[in-house]
Design goal:
322 residues; Rossmann fold; 7-stranded mixed beta sheet; 5-stranded parallel beta sheet; 12 strands; globular
Length: 322
């Protein structure tokens, strides 16, 4: 079993299997949680709430809106939840968090797995958010540079690394600056691949290949994650090794990942919801940072790419898929 250790700011977790509950059908006194872009990962959030004593239809209700990570639809989804209104808005990722903040300055927002919430303009500081948003971040110090360093350990000859950039994700600005600063010391040149809409995939990746990258990296950006099957297939066809943020991408066939556990971040976010429903203001709840990151390696993919993973590297991995 892989260990997960985080700075403890809030207590525990768990949740209930989803059932869309319309605000007009719930008893008026039930707290209503608005969720944008519900998906499989959110089951950890609902189960964690259940473990905290919240039962859907009896002590809590949910309202869902779809946006598929698209900026205009995120704005519309957040605005609809505000108009209901909901008691708390829960969102995944920086772009959805920004849309929720633009829609309301009063309804509490719990943001899960965001990039850099300070440089992304979501909070004043991690210790004192200062507004109506709090939550947790996937970032630790120099995490983007660390992923590139790990790639170099496995493939020392790597000199040109492509990074998938979402121009609508404010946290990607921080990633880009960090990678640009770290690249000379790592002996690599970064290739930034801008992809903010579905119809840009073919052209963006074709242009990327013209730059002759040796390796590829991407984050857990929710919009990009919608297209992971396509990305995995493209990289496999072009025999391009890749480093991911999410373990789930490696389970699906990616080479390796280095990052915090997404299910754990969703579980831990329920502590914020519970405290907010008990009367605590988001401004008084520090943003939680991960202190442990897991390295996951897919040996099947390595063999398909013709790579030999150093034994010392595999011994450091938290999980090896064979």
């Amino acid at each position: 079993m892989r260990r997960r250790q985080f700075i403890s700011l809030l207590g525990g977790a768990a949740a209930v299997w989803p059932l869309v509950a319309g605000a007009q059908q719930r008893p008026a006194k039930l707290p209503l949680i608005g969720i944008i872009d519900d998906g499989p990962i959110w089951k950890h959030f609902r189960l964690a709430l259940h473990d905290l004593g919240y039962i859907e239809g009896q002590t809590i209700a949910f309202e869902y809106r779809r946006a598929e990570g698209k900026p205009d639809r995120l704005t519309a989804a957040a605005t609809e939840l505000v108009r209901l209104p909901v008691d708390v808005i829960a969102v995944y990722g920086t772009a959805a968090a920004g849309a929720a903040m633009a829609a309301t300055k009063t309804i509490p927002i719990v943001a899960i797995s965001v990039g850099d919430p300070v440089r992304g303009g979501l909070v004043g500081s991690l210790a004192r958010p200062g507004g109506n948003l709090t939550g947790n971040t996937v970032l630790g110090p120099d995490i983007g540079a660390k992923r590139t360093q790990l790639l170099k350990e496995v493939i020392p000859a790597v000199s040109r690394v492509a990074f998938l950039l979402n121009p609508d994700n404010a946290s990607h600005v921080a990633y880009r600056e960090e990678l640009r600063a770290a690249a000379p010391g790592l002996g690599v040149q970064m290739i930034f691949v801008r992809m903010g809409s579905s119809d840009e995939f073919e052209s963006a990746f074709a242009a990327m290949m013209q730059e002759r990258p040796d390796a590829f990296t991407m984050t857990g950006d929710p919009f990009h994650q919608l297209h992971v099957p396509w990305i995995l297939d493209f990289l496999a066809r072009h025999r391009l090794p890749a480093m991911y943020q999410l373990r789930e991408n490696v389970l699906a066939g990616g080479l390796m990942s280095y990052g915090a556990s997404q299910p754990d971040l969703f579980r831990r976010a329920t502590g914020y919801v519970h405290k907010i429903l008990q009367g605590t203001k988001p401004a008084d709840l520090p943003v939680e940072q991960p202190v442990k990151f897991d390295l996951v390696v897919n040996l099947r993919t390595a063999k398909a790419l013709g790579l030999t993973m150093p034994e010392s590297f595999l011994l450091r991995a938290d999980e090896v898929i064979e």
